[in-house]
């Protein structure tokens, strides 16, 4: 695998899909920098992985966060080959109950932070002819009543992905994976009651042809494919659904 020895930074790596991506990248021999809001789960992850890991405890929306994350990777490994923008936030509510502050928060995490991270990392990525993978969602392509703000922020990330792919080619490739329903702790932070979560899970499961939820590792395998120039060197601007057929 040509990810061996490559310096890869993953945001939102403390749990869920981001943790699965970090674990898979470590198994494939990458040199990891993991970022997230909480230091404890990042350190626990680093202790479990066999390869080198640099931990950066920071909120990706905080002032100076992008510079801090990129500098940490370059200081540790001398370079940055790839960036995975995975940090995410979910706030679900019908429009009449939705808070404008929730939309602002999701745009900050899903759009502004990835854009700033790519901007800060760009000189290093160009030097290494590297790549970016944004972790979006099928919610950015499907109409989802009760989740309009979330879907709008992910649709903006999809547009950012495609625009940057055109702008940064051929030196830097930019792609996105669009997961369908995956069991992660984000479900508990979406602002829903227990009954609402169970109803949503039932609805999503019924709409997924594969008949089950995905796993973080299944998303991670697609991320690794898109990062690896040996496997995907002629792919850029792709929005790859990893959704059990949800968008079919």
TrEMBL record:
Ketoreductase domain segment(s): 6-190
Pfam family, one: adh_short_C2
Matches recorded under CDD domains: SDR_c
Tree of life domain: Bacteria
InterPro entries xrefs: KR_dom, NAD(P)-bd_dom_sf, Sc_DH/Rdtase_CS, SDR_fam
SUPFAM superfamilies the record matches: NAD(P)-binding Rossmann-fold domains (SSF51735)
Family indicated by similarity: Belongs to the short-chain dehydrogenases/reductases (SDR) family.
Protein name listed in UniProt: SDR family oxidoreductase
UniProt source species: Streptomyces pyxinae
